[in-house]
Amino acid sequence: MSAPGRPQVLYLTTVDRLTGAAGLSRETRIVVGVLARDFDLSLAIAGPIDDQELQKLRDHFASVRAAGGFPASSADQPAVAGLRGLAKARLGTDIVNARLQAAIQRRAEAFDAVVIDDLLATPYLPARQNMPVYYLAHRCESKARSSTWWRWLRQREQRALSQCEKGALQSVSAVFAKPEVAGELLAQGLSFRQLNPSFGQFRPEIVLGEPTTWGETHQRVGYAGYLGDDRNLASLEWLLREVWTPGQRTLADTELHLVGMAPPSPLRELAAANNNVYLHSGSRQQVRDLGCRAVIEPLMFEQHVDTKLVNAMSQGLPVITTREGVRRAHAELGEGVLAAAGPEQMSMTVHQLMNDESLWQLHASAATRTAALQLADFEVAHDLRRALLRVSEERVSR
């Protein structure tokens, strides 16, 4: 076990070569970005990756160690039969790197939990681990017949792969997956008990909303968040003090609606100082019910920036934030987020979105597309995060 402090998590993954991209897949980057806020991650990457790519990952994700790309040695062994065809197609080799295995095993006692997010990373699981092991299934390998590598596999190899995947998933503490992937795993014979119980119970307040038209909105900007969080409050106070109050000449015809439970006195006083700022108790859905034309997320001080922005984009409205917020994001945000360099530019961005229908439509459509692509991945990532936090709490209580 690690010393008291941030929990230590071993994260086993592979190089993404399916799309021809170097480094990690989009789904893996989402999960690593979410977990890196609360845990010290040791990222072990199977497959061809060079020192430059490893350093980029260390620079991009806070509190992440990254290892991989070790040269071959005489101790290397071929993967088990069920993984060989898949490994050759996906990684270019079916050899399991002994140096990476040894590097992982040397630190095995320091970890509080292990996450595996690719079947080809399972050979690197530490031996005799005394910790929970979670499998994050981005896909069901046995059902991925449309993938470019599938045609490489003969029928016998397909059966062996299916058995290998089933055995790997049955051996872990729990499996996390999006609903469509979970359904495929269940069809392959995975026990329902192995699946994280909430895999099909995503929070209703962040389900992707129905498309909104310009005519259904008003000159209103909405914010929704937990007002009992000091970081959220600090960002809102910055928004009111630095953007909204000084920018009244530009924003005089625009209403700001802040949605959240039990706003504290300082926030109520700041809101009352502006004739066009309104406080509401309610859920995120109220932003749409009020007919807001855009969502605003200052994100000057919060954690989990990516999640907040993707949740905001799930409203199907343009999202306005700060460059400071985007700088700390890891997800691919596209044109669904407009980042302002400072208070004056933020007030001008709000004004433009309130009055330019074509600009509004461009960014509303981009927000909807981006959220649809990433929302479920973020939900699964946070489900896994909550499970790891429970492990940490149990470790502290012992």
Determine the fraction of residues in helical runs and give it as a percent range: 40-55%
Proportion in β-strands: 15-25%
Q: Give the CA-based shape.
A: elongated
| Broad structural category | alpha/beta
Order of secondary-structure elements: EHEHEEHEHEEHEHEHHEHEHEHEHEHH
> Helical segment tally?
14
Low-confidence stretches: none
Got a strand count? Answer: 14
What's the mean pLDDT score?
88
What Rg do the Cα atoms give?
23 Å
Q: How does the major sheet shape up? A: 6 strands, parallel
Q: Give me the oligomer status.
A: single chain
Instruction: Give, in spatial order, the strands making up the sheet with the most strands.
Output: 3-2-1-6-7-8
Distance from N terminus to C terminus (CA atoms, Å) equals 12 Å
Characterise the protein shown here.
The chain is an alpha/beta fold. It contains 14 helices and 14 strands. It has helices at residues 26-35, 51-60, 81-91, 98-106, 155-170, 179-187, 230-244, 248-251, 265-272, 285-289, 305-313, 323-327, 343-355, 357-397; strands at residues 8-14, 40-46, 64-68, 77-78, 95-96, 113-116, 133-137, 174-177, 220-224, 255-259, 277-280, 294-297, 319-322, 337-340. The strands form three sheets. Strands 3-2-1-6-7-8 form a six-stranded parallel beta sheet, sandwiched between helices. Helix 7 crosses helix 13. The protein starts with 7 loop residues before the first strand and ends with a helix. The mean pLDDT is 88.
